[in-house]
Amino acid sequence: MRTSSNPAFRNLPTSPGGYARFGDAPAGLGGGFGGGPAGQAPVSGASDRPLTVDDVVQKTALNAVVTIGVGVLTAISGFYLLGIVGFIVGLVVALIIIFKQSTNPALVLTYSVSQGLALGALTGALEASSNRYAGIGFQAILGVVGVFIGMLVVYKTGAIRVTPRLTKMIIGAAIGVFVLMLANLVIGFFTDGGLGLRTGGPLAIIFSLACIAIGAFMLLLDFDQADQAVKAGVPARFAWYLAFGFMTTLVWLYIEILQLLSYFRD
User: Fold this and answer.
1) Domain limits of the chain?
2) Which of 2, 86, 163, 257 has minimal CB crowding within 10 Å?
3) pLDDT of 77-135, one tens digit each?
4) What is the SS3 assignment for the chain?
5) What are phi and psi of 133, to 5 degrees?
6) For the residues 207-223, what does the mean pLDDT come to?
7) Higher pLDDT, 29 or 87
8) Quick one: pLDDT at residue 36?
9) What residues pair up with 50 in beta bridges, in sequence order?
10) What is the C-alpha separation between 251 and 265, in angstroms, rounded?
11) Membrane-spanning residues where (predicted)?
12) How far is CA 56 from CA 53, 120, 198, 222, 237, in A?
């Protein structure tokens, strides 16, 4: 069983082996849920039936729409300080969902709302700072949609197979990027521009492109993890948990694409 670079998916129980594809029928309940001898979950309601692709798509789409809607309203309102509240609430809720592996719809939707506040405030403040940033938020959304569709096509066609080796490489690259971001932030407190990863120069552009590429491959791993969950037939309520996992990747992609677009506008 492969693990994802996305912490929300890393501990999600799935069936061992094989490369599942979207559209495969569930292969029976399993993966460690429930209390039966074989780890099967009793089907006692709609939330306990086997997970389907439609469940994941619907919950992910709902959370994406909520984030975009709240983001647009926040950007229009001009209350950009709400972004700080959104960031803090989002971080706390994300940690709760990840460590408790929660499938609570209220928590997942709260995360999406908080990210809408944070991203909306960030985008609104950027666009309000100069006319050259007008419409940059819409372009960033289009960029995220393009990456999402592109990686879905890549995954479904099998152009790039998700293997354990590829997974390790992507996880390693993601960790490396995180370390560089942290180092850039810390050094930035003592020097002007830190390591130069966010100054808008050639190095910053290359770094943003690398972050977007890694985010895209993380999305590829997330597709695979969701696919394995569908094949394993985990309870349908875990669609909320999977939707949260997708949202964490999409939020990161939006931030990096927004950052890159701002460099080109400058």
Assistant:
1) 51-265
2) 163
3) 989 999 999 999 999 999 999 999 899 999 999 999 999 999 999 999 999 988 888 89
4) CCCCCCCCCCCCCCCCCCCCCCCCCCCCCCCCCCCCCCCCCCCCCHHHCECCHHHHHHHHHHHHHHHHHHHHHHHHHCCCCHHHHHHHHHHHHHHHHHHHCCCCHHHHHHHHHHHHHHHHHHHHHHHHHCHHHCCHHHHHHHHHHHHHHHHHHHHHHCCCCCCHHHHHHHHHHHHHHHHHHHHHHHHHCCCCCCCCCCCCCHHHHHHHHHHHHHHHHHHHHHHHHHHHHHHHCCEHHHHHHHHHHHHHHHHHHHHHHHHHHHHHHC
5) -95, 5
6) 93
7) 87
8) 35
9) 235
10) 21
11) 79-99, 132-154, 166-190, 202-221, 241-264
12) 5, 25, 35, 12, 10
Angle between helices 136-157 and 202-232 (to 10 degrees): 50
Higher pLDDT, 141 or 35: 141
pTM equals 0.80
Q: CB of 101 within 8 A of CB of 11?
A: yes
